[in-house]
Design a protein that fits this description.
The protein is an alpha/beta fold and 310 residues long. It has eleven helices and eight strands. Bound molecules: uridine-5'-diphosphate (UDP) and magnesium ion (MG). Uridine-5'-diphosphate (UDP) binds next to strand 1 and helix 4.
Length: 310
C-alpha cells in the first residue's frame, strides 16, 4: 500500500483545521481505489489560538493525523521543512490550511506522477482575484525582477501547493539553508515538473498571515538567496561613476587652462556629492544584505524548535 503525506503549515487556523481535513478526505475513495493511504502532518507554527487543541482532537479520532508543535512562530518556510522531514509518504503534498489550495486537484496531480512519469506536480494561480491591486502590482514586479536576475526559474503565481515523489522530497531536504525560499528551491532541484493552473480561490475563513511588509522582506530574501546579480550591479555602478568622474576631471582641467575659469558652482557640487554618497550607501546596503544572510547561515541555528510531537 502506498502512502500520501499531506503537510499543512498552520498559523492561527483554528477555524480551518477540520474543514481542511474533511475536504481532503473527499478524495479518500479515489486514493483507496489506487491503494494509497493518507497521512496528515499539521505543523503548528506557534499559533496563539486553539489550532493545537483542534489538531489534537482530530488526532485522537484519527490515527493518521500527526502534529508537530513549534515552540514559537518560525514562519511558513521552516514549517514546510519540518513537515517534509517528518513525512514518510511515497508521495508528499504541501497545502495551505485555508483551502486556497483546492484538494480536489489531488487525484489529477497523482495521475500525472504515476501515469505520466513526472517527479513533481506544481500549481499556479492564473489570476490574483480578491487581492489588493497594489499587492498584485508589486508581486508581478517582483517576479519580473527575480527572473531577470536569477538563473533559477521562479514562476509568477506559483503556489507552494505541490505533489512530490519521495526522491524529489529528499532532494529538497538536502538543501539545508537557513534562508529558505521554497519557490526557488523547488525550481533549483530540477526533475520533471508539471504545472497545473487554477483560478484564485479566496481564503475560506480567518485572514491572511502575510502583511505587505512581511511579503517585501520575503521577496528580498528570495532575491538574495537566488541571485548574486545585485552585487555585480553595485560594482558596475562603481565603475560607471569612476568613468564619469574621470571625464569631469579632464573637462575641469581643460576649462581652467583655456578660460582660466575659477572653480564656480558649488550647488552642482552639492548635488553630485549627495548623489554619489546616496549610490554608495545603496551599494553598501546591497553588500550588507548578503553579509547578513551569510552571518545567519554560518551560525547554523536550527530552522525550528519542536515543543511536542503527536
Ligand atoms: N503560515 C504559517 N506560518 C506563518 C504564516 C503563515 O504556517 O508565519 C501558514 C498559514 O497558516 C497558511 C499558509 O501558511 O496555512 C499560507 O498563509 P496565508 O494563507 O496567510 O497566506 P496567503 O494565502 O495570504 O499568501
Ligand atoms: Mg492563504
Amino acid at each position: 500500500m502506498g502512502l500520501l503525506s499531506v503537510i499543512v503549515p498552520c498559523y492561527n487556523e483554528e477555524e480551518n483545521i477540520v474543514d481542511f481535513y474533511n475536504e481532503v478526505l473527499k478524495n479518500e475513495a479515489y486514493f483507496k481505489g489506487h491503494d494509497v493511504d493518507f497521512e496528515f502532518i499539521y505543523v503548528n507554527d506557534g499559533s496563539k489560538d486553539k489550532t493545537v487543541e483542534m489538531v489534537k482532537e482530530l488526532a485522537a479520532k484519527d490515527k493518521r493525523v500527526h502534529l508537530i508543535n513549534f515552540s514559537r512562530n518560525f514562519g511558513k518556510e521552516p514549517a514546510m521543512y519540518a513537515g517534509l522531514e517528518k513525512s514518510k509518504g511515497d508521495y508528499v503534498a504541501i497545502m495551505d490550511c485555508d483551502l486556497q489550495d483546492p484538494p480536489a486537484l489531488l487525484p489529477q496531480m497523482y495521475e500525472a506522477i504515476v501515469n505520466e512519469g513526472y517527479d513533481s506536480v506544481a500549481t499556479r494561480r492564473v489570476d490574483r482575484k480578491g487581492e489588493p491591486p497594489i499587492r498584485s502590482f508589486f508581486a508581478r514586479m517582483f517576479y519580473k525582477l527575480i527572473n531577470k536576475v536569477s538563473k533559477t526559474e521562479i514562476v509568477d503565481g506559483a503556489r507552494d501547493y505541490r505533489l512530490m515523489t519521495r526522491q524529489f522530497v529528499d532532494a529538497i531536504l538536502s538543501m539545508k539553508e537557513y534562508n529558505r525560499f521554497s519557490k526557488g528551491i523547488f525550481g533549483w532541484v530540477g526533475f520533471k515538473n508539471k504545472w497545473i493552473e487554477f483560478e484564485n480561490i479566496e481564503r475560506m475563513k480567518g485572514e491572511t498571515k502575510w502583511s505587505f511588509w512581511k511579503l517585501f522582506v520575503y521577496a528580498l530574501d528570495g532575491i538574495v538567496a537566488f541571485s548574486t546579480v545585485p552585487l555585480a550591479f553595485a560594482s558596475l555602478i562603481g565603475v560607471l561613476f569612476c568613468l564619469l568622474a574621470f571625464f569631469f576631471i579632464i573637462f575641469t582641467i581643460i576649462r581652467k587652462s583655456l578660460y582660466g575659469d575659477p572653480t564656480s558652482g558649488w550647488p552642482s557640487l552639492v548635488c553630485i556629492i549627495l548623489l554619489v554618497s546616496g549610490v554608495q550607501l545603496f551599494c553598501i546596503g546591497i553588500v550588507g544584505q548578503y553579509l547578513s544572510k551569510t552571518y545567519l547561515e554560518v551560525k547554523k541555528r536550527p530552522l525550528y524548535i519542536v515543543k511536542e510531537e503527536i
